[in-house]
Specification:
The protein is mainly alpha-helical. 66% of the residues lie in helices and 3% in strands. The longest helix has 25 residues. The radius of gyration is 20 Å and the shape is elongated.
């Protein structure tokens, strides 16, 4: 039986999470035809409406496709929206695999240093204020607790916002989710090996000073160190 949903989480979201984790973990691999609506809703002890809405959610994220008379089938991995914040969360609720983690850091190295350079050239006072507030939150809470990780998310989000580039800003939720889940992942066995706040402050100083090339270099170094921390956690 599926655990009851909390008051803050609608039931179909709980069903979607349950099914999504099974798909991302490989327990329900691509090509699998899911049970019919009646059988599935009974096995999960949820209404057919909740199950139907969950399947719609998974379909919108590219994880499944439904066809008349053919049923609902898990799609190939290449069709999954791997940058969807929910999919990232579900992936990290299991062991996501080293290749996927390296892919996320590679994506960050492609996107975020360039974004930091643009932010240094285009930022306004409100952007800098949000970055300062985020740094204060990181310093106050630390990255071992949700409040500190939320502040870290806010810092990276503010940088992307400061670029003024709409497609880059649209990536902010995905980048922030990748930052958060890799941070949680590398703390799953032990505390963080070092305090990443100094690199964040150095990056902020470059952006505040309008030093585009320096901001790019400091963001690249911040990501390099974060990857090194994550790789260290993998071998323990």
């Amino acid at each position: 039986m599926l655990p009851l949903a909390s008051a803050s989480h609608r039931l179909h979201g709980t069903v979607a999470r349950h099914l999504g984790i099974a798909i991302l973990s490989g327990r329900t691999p691509p090509g699998t035809v899911l049970p019919g609506e009646i059988a599935a809703s009974e096995s999960l002890s949820v209404s057919r409406t909740a199950y139907r809405e969950a399947i719609r959610t998974l379909s919108a994220k590219g994880l499944v496709e439904s066809r008349p008379k053919a049923g609902t089938r898990v799609t190939e991995r290449g069709r999954w929206n791997l940058l969807d914040p929910d999919i990232l969360a579900w992936a990290f609720e299991t062991e996501p695999g080293e290749a996927f983690i390296h892919d996320l850091f590679e994506l960050r190295q492609i996107v975020e240093p360039a974004a930091a350079e643009l932010a240094a050239l285009r930022r306004g006072a409100p952007h800098l204020d949000r970055m300062r507030q985020a740094l204060d939150g990181m310093a106050r809470h630390g990255l071992a607790v949700p409040a500190g990780r939320a502040a870290d998310q806010a810092f990276h989000h503010a940088i992307l916002e400061a670029t003024g580039n709409a497609p880059l800003i649209a990536l902010s939720s995905s980048i922030a989710a990748a930052v958060t889940w890799t941070t949680i992942y590398k703390q799953r066995r032990r505390a963080l090996p070092r305090d990443p706040l100094p690199e964040h402050r150095a990056l902020f100083e470059a952006i505040a000073a309008g030093e585009g090339a320096l901001a790019r270099a400091r963001m690249a170094e911040l990501i390099r160190l974060a990857l090194a921390d994550t790789e260290s956690s993998m071998v323990e």
